Amino acid sequence: MKAMVFQGPGQTSWRDVPDPGVVDASDVVVRVEAVTICGTDLHIVKGDVPEVTPGTVLGHEAVGEVVEAGSEVRSVRPGERVLVSCISSCGRCRFCREGRYGQCRGGGGWVLGHLIDGTQAEYVRVPFADGSVHPLPGAVPAEDAVLLADIFPTGYEVGVLNGRVGPGDTVAVVGAGPIGLATVATAGLYSPGRIIAVDYAPSRLEAARALGADTVVDAAEDAEQLVKDVTEGLGADVVVEAVGVPQAFEECMRMVRPGGHVANIGVHGEPVTLHLEDLWIKDITLTTGLVDTRTTPMLLRMLAAGRLPGVSELVTHRFELGQMEQAYDIFTKSRHTGALKVVLGGGRHDELRLTELRPTG
Which of 131, 242, 260, 298 could crosslink 256 through cysteines, CB 3.0-4.6 Å? Predict the structure, then answer.
């Protein structure tokens, strides 16, 4: 089969690799119908995630059809369409029993495209299938469902829930990439008083406004002052860091009000400075986290009912599965191409939206 293989920092290729098969009795093998590229994949390619070894198939998000199932699998059977979660759950360790699947110590957690071969391939082996794949309602399009493999549960759990967004809150989301946009969309479920989105790319700020942001700010401007101006100098109740660079993290810590919450989602590849000399007295709660995907079944029900905002709006570019290298190029240059989420496969093989490939600034 063909797969997107990490060959070392800055090196990837779409090439032939052996077909996967069932290794453990809890495995399934899924024929990939739709797959997407995550910002975390770009961090891996850059070299920010040293645990990923050369030769690993990338990717941790997919929708597909089960073609083989181990003898212990009970929740799905061959022929069923499933969502492949970015997180695998052994279901037995302490953390899985607490619903903290991202911290699984039984061989799960974030393993696909990280510690084992991932989803950017024609077929993928998924371990611990009963806790790691979700049957899909027939009416849910694959290209919509694949966004629930990672970005929507991540934005919702690590941003909105960890940040404790509540009615009337001022919420600032720093970074309006796919995860930040999913955070904007799901924060709206809690009726905040105001959502502010900060980013450099005009196309992302436009998308943030369409998904529910009340105010958008070019990151080159003074976003901190704007937050102070609209909160009578206090700062935001909740600030979500969705970039993963030191400058953004420190900006978030300056934006939050005393007693507020900073929820870090960004994947950081280098140290940041935590200014405790300023923060020790401010009663601030800082959370970090890898998504657990415990809310995925609920989000799927909302999607099937047409009550999950922003899903279809996030897909800006579509490709055939064999166009993986082209899709990476478009997604990597998102500041110029306007790419939010790219989907490969999915049954909607439209031509590329050429207007979205023009530079946006």
Answer: 260
